[in-house]
Amino acid sequence: MTWPIDVKELTLEELEEWLASWGQPRFRARQILKWVYKGVAGFGEMTDLSRTLRTELEQRVRLSSLTLSTRQVSRDGTQKFRWVLEDGAGIESVLIPEEGHSTLCLSSQVGCALGCRFCLTARQGLTRNLKTAEIVNQVLAVRPFVPADRPLTNLVFMGMGEPLANFAAVVRAIGVIQAPWGLNFSTRRVTVSTAGLAPLIPRLGLEARVNLTISLNAVDDTTRSSLMPINRRYPLKELLAACRKFPLPRHRRITFAYVLLAGINDEPAMAMELTRLLKGFRAKVNLIPFNPHPELPFAAPEPARVLEFQEIIRQAHYPVFIRESRGQDIAAACGQLAGNWS
User: Fold this and answer.
1) Backbone CA torsion sign across 223, 227, 233, 234
2) Is residue 341 part of a domain?
3) Are residues 199 and 319 both part of a single domain?
4) Active-site position among 16, 105, 243, 334
5) 280 in a domain, yes or no?
6) Where does S-adenosyl-L-methionine bind (predicted)?
7) 243 is catalytic
């Protein structure tokens, strides 16, 4: 960690240790973190701390934040935020209004190294991993923009980057996000999506209590490898074996996301094969008709084709949903993030 240390990089226990080493009582850590995750901008606002301690904190530690570059609002109410990080790098987050609540789509990396052909973020390549604080700060930074009648309750790691490729920082951020001394989100309301870093899937379930989404998108290795190069390293058999080892809590399901690409992975026989692959899983399926973009050489299937694909899966008794495209007019939909970053 760099000096001065960012308080948002510390757990409660770590901050207690730091304060004790300065001769401060450990209970001050909870007081400080209460203010930090209320979203104060500086230590001077922590009015239940002595002036002496506030001055010492200003000298020894810091509070990082994100700088808002651009905010766009879609016709459907979706908001896309472009944040500038302290080193000048840029990331995006998306706030999605839903019935009675809001969901925030979080980024975990600046860019992405996995090269999925249907995703604009992949065209950037990977610049770097996000720090724990940069992940947590996305949640804090959107708070002023959350509609009063749709509180922010759900977080999904489905923005820029592959979360499991930044495993340590993502797991640490989840700890802060769910901790009573942190942002206090329900474990049932945090979802991590992966393109398929198979060895880390069971480990994720051991180190964090989250919902798991697998970005599947094909039912055979040839098609999946052509769309998602990670499949050459961890083919379907290995990926599904890792999913079976994921310690799935009772009454929960693994979500398998499937981006439908016209003429590539939308055949009825592929829907049948998908039901075969999922045999034995407590699973649900999210179908995502491709969100078109001029830079990507794909198209969405016709609506009737999507419904046919859905019905085949439903007949196999799996919950299956067609995910509505949100924020497409501002390039905030699935696979579109960072498409026109400047």
Assistant:
1) negative
2) no
3) yes
4) 334
5) yes
6) 161-162, 193, 215-217, 291
7) no
Question: What is the phi/psi pair of residue 80, to 5°?
Answer: -110, 130
- For tokens 């991590």, name the residue: 192
Catalytic member of 92, 105, 134, 243: 92
Residue 119 in marked binding region: yes
Domain boundary among 38, 62, 86: 62
Known binder of ligand: residue 291?
Answer: yes
Task: With residue 137 as reference, give the H or E element that holds it.
Answer: helix 132-142
Q: Are residues 27 and 71 in the same domain?
A: no
How far is residue 330's CA from residue 326's CA, in Å, rounded to a whole number?
9
The domain of 11 spans 5-62
Residues of the chain with pLDDT under 70: 1-3, 330-342
- Residue 107 marked as a ligand binder: no
Q: Is 217 a known ligand-binding residue?
A: yes
Q: Is residue 115 part of a domain?
A: yes
pLDDT the model gives residue 19: 95
Structure tokens at 186: 């329900």
Residue 148 lies in a domain: yes
Quick one: pLDDT at residue 24?
Answer: 95
Residue 92 annotated to the active site: yes
With CA atoms as reference, report the closest residue to 108 among 85, 77, 87: 85
pLDDT in the model for residue 338: 67
Residues 203, 79 share a domain: yes
277 and 241 Cβ atoms separated by less than 8 Å: no
For 165-219, the pLDDT digits (tens) are: 999 999 999 999 999 999 999 999 999 999 999 999 999 999 999 999 999 999 9
pLDDT given at position 124: 86
Residues 188 and 303 in one domain: yes
φ/ψ of 303, rounded to 5, equals -55, -40
